[in-house]
Design a protein that fits this description.
single chain; 80 residues; mainly alpha; two-stranded antiparallel ribbon; 2 helices; 5% strand
Length: 80
Amino acid sequence: MTTIDDSLGEIRSVRNDIWRCRELLKSDLPDAEREIMEKRLLERRSTFERLLAFTFPLALTLCSGETRGEARNCKSIREE
């Protein structure tokens, strides 16, 4: 069984990998290396989303213009 500390540590590690990929993509890379980094970034972002969904399974909703239980302009936090 995975503890919350283990899950948060893995989330941090993946987040740091995403940051490193983005920083490398800002530099001048040969086309082949750029393609590899773009692919890795997509994979890490997918992993990050999966870890977040697994660790924090509830999706909160932000609503503006809510009156007497009638919600308007609602947007899931995960949609941002």
